[in-house]
Write a structure and sequence with these properties.
With 482 residues, this protein is an alpha/beta fold. The protein has helices spanning 43-62, 65-94, 98-104, 107-117, 119-122, 156-169, 184-193, 209-217, 231-241, 266-273, 300-311, 332-348, 384-387, 403-411, 426-435, and strands at 5-6, 9-11, 14-16, 23-28, 33-39, 128-130, 136-143, 146-150, 173-177, 202-204, 224-228, 247-251, 257-260, 292-296, 350-353, 374-377, 394-400, 415-416, 420-422, 442-443, 458-459, 462-463, 472-479. Helix content is 37%, strand content 20%. The model has no long low-confidence stretch (mean pLDDT 97). Bound molecules: nicotinamide-adenine-dinucleotide.
Length: 482
């Protein structure tokens, strides 16, 4: 049995043990076994990290954009050299298929840092206006100062890199709070980062939400918060940030509709609503999971036949095995949540396929948090399986007859993150794009959050976007040429 390592926080360029001296177990969700320990950070660690970030920020902001971009590209090089190692750690930590994590936590992060490095110049470009009497107006884009980045467990390295790279491109420094369930890959990144980035520019403090997250978001030394996670936590953070009126970006949960119209290409749609949207390598633990499949009634049986044929081939198993299509659920707590919804679905709706969980799904790996792809069918959109984010490989199919009905069902939910539409009819597509209340509408494709376009939520899926404009603020100036 390999030795279980205690990882450390990165504060002011130093790797530091938590001031409490306490650590949290990191569990491999494919085995249920402890494989590493991460710091149980608290307010003292957060105070030190915020102080380090504040001290480093003026010099970082004063550096010319190309020089900052150069350092950011060197950060990206960490992933060229260590991407495979970091991706393997993330898979051990959160159970996402290794093949996906190579992009989400490995070499793909080199591209993120390279791409965002290019935004250092964009971050300094403001607007100008010629006013009456030759007065000249213009804006200065300025950094906020110190950004707090709160990161969830389903893509810890990707979220850390996305938020930290935007913060740095905007001339800010950052304190990252990775998720307590899956921080190891981020803390390995921290070890490698310590050698590349000036002290205090990126600080990483691990710990539980109330102990480390809350002191961070309520800290008066934080100028902006970027949080990705559940809507429940988003509301807590908004309340904790209120006394300082700290502005925030919230990328929260979803219950996204994936709608199939009678004129769709049914083969493409079947793939798009199943393996393309929910029964994926991260076992449906994806914020944009298309967990409500809305189907025009007259094609429902045809579509279902195709979905069955696709999902029968899904292999649930070891996320390191290239033959696996889906890994485990991240933790015991999340496993209990997902299986609770499966039991509610069995009680309230028709079980179409799946519904089994635990060792019976992957007998060769007992103790893992396994759930098989599960589909329910109902006409009642008010059920908890239709309204609440399950965050597992569990979808519900809801039939409709008319476009009016489909749009009403799609919008009859508190969330509004993503949506999908499968149709060959352009004018119907335009109507759905207009009327669906969600931050993204993907037509004849799914799972397309893109760096080229804003990605964010409506309703309780949050507000704001992780893009360069939101990591800088604009000051207006007017010069009167007297
Ligand atoms: P979570 O809300 O439980 O935790 C997210 C982060 O917030 C963690 O780092 C946690 O420690 C921290 N936190 C918890 N309580 C806090 C507090 N009081 N103050 C400050 N920080 C606190 O979410 P999760 O379970 O880690 O992730 C799953 C959720 O994330 C799902 O709802 C999913 O939809 C959402 N998500 C959204 C997006 C998006 O872009 N919209 C992307 C990925 C995940």
């Amino acid at each position: 049995m390999p030795e279980i390592k205690n990882y450390r926080n990165l504060i002011g360029g130093e790797l530091r043990a938590p001031s409490s001296g306490k650590y949290l177990d990191s569990i491999n969700p494919a085995t249920g076994q402890v494989w590493a320990r991460v710091p149980a950070g608290n307010k003292d660690d957060i105070d030190a990290a915020v102080a380090a970030a504040r001290a480093a920020q003026p010099a970082w902001a004063a550096m010319p954009g190309p020089a900052r971009a150069h350092i950011m590209r060197q950060i990206g090089q960490i992933f060229m050299k260590h991407g495979e190692e970091i991706a393997r750690m993330e898979t051990t930590d959160n159970g996402r298929l290794l093949g996906e994590n190579v992009q989400r936590a490995g070499i793909g992060m080199a591209y993120v840092w390279d791409n965002t490095a290019g935004l250092t110049l964009e971050a300094s470009i403001g607007r100008s206006a010629v006013l009456e009497n030759n007065m000249m107006g213009f804006t200065r884009r300025e950094p906020y100062g110190v950004i707090a980045a709160i990161v969830p467990w389903n893509a810890p390295v990707a979220m850390t890199c996305g938020k930290a790279s935007l913060a740095l491109a905007g001339g800010n420094t950052v304190v990252v709070k990775p998720p307590e369930q899956a921080s190891v890959a981020v803390l390995r990144f921290a070890e490698l980062l310590a050698e590349v980035v000036p002290p205090g520019v990126i600080n990483i403090v691990c710990g539980e939400g109330p102990d480390a997250g809350e002191p961070l978001v309520s800290h008066p030394g934080i100028n902006k918060i970027s949080m990705t996670g559940s809507s429940v936590t988003g509301k807590r953070i908004q309340a904790a940030a209120a006394p300082n009126l700290t502005s925030a970006i919230f990328e929260l949960g979803g219950k996204s509709p994936n709608i199939v119209l009678e004129d769709a290409d049914l083969d493409a749609a079947a793939e798009g609503v199943s393996t393309g949207a929910i029964f994926t390598g991260n076992a449906g633990q994806v914020c944009v999971a298309g967990s409500r499949i809305l189907v025009q009634r007259n094609i429902m049986d045809d579509l279902l036949q195709r979905i069955r044929a696709i999902t029968e081939k899904i292999v649930v198993g070891d996320p390191f095995d290239a033959r696996s299509c889906m890994g485990p659920i991240v933790s015991q707590k999340q496993f209990e949540r997902v299986t609770g919804f499966i039991e509610a679905g069995k009680r309230d709706a028709e079980l179409v396929f799946g519904g089994r969980y635990g060792d019976v799904v992957v007998p060769s790996m007992p103790g893992g948090y396994w759930v098989e792809p599960t589909l329910f069918r109902t006409e009642d959109n008010s059920l908890s399986i239709c309204q609440e984010e399950i965050f597992g490989p569990v979808a519900v199919m809801i039939p409709f007859d008319t476009d009016d009905q489909a749009i009403a069902i799609a919008n009859d939910v508190n969330f509004g993150l993503a949506s999908g539409l499968w149709t060959r009819n352009l004018s119907r597509a335009h109507r759905y794009i207009r009327e669906i209340q969600a931050g993204s509408v993907w037509v004849n494709t799914y799972r397309q959050p893109r760096l080229e376009l804003p990605f964010g939520g409506y309703k309780q899926s949050g507000y704001g976007h992780d893009d360069i404009y939101e990591y800088t603020r604009e000051k207006s100036a007017i010069i009167n040429p007297i």
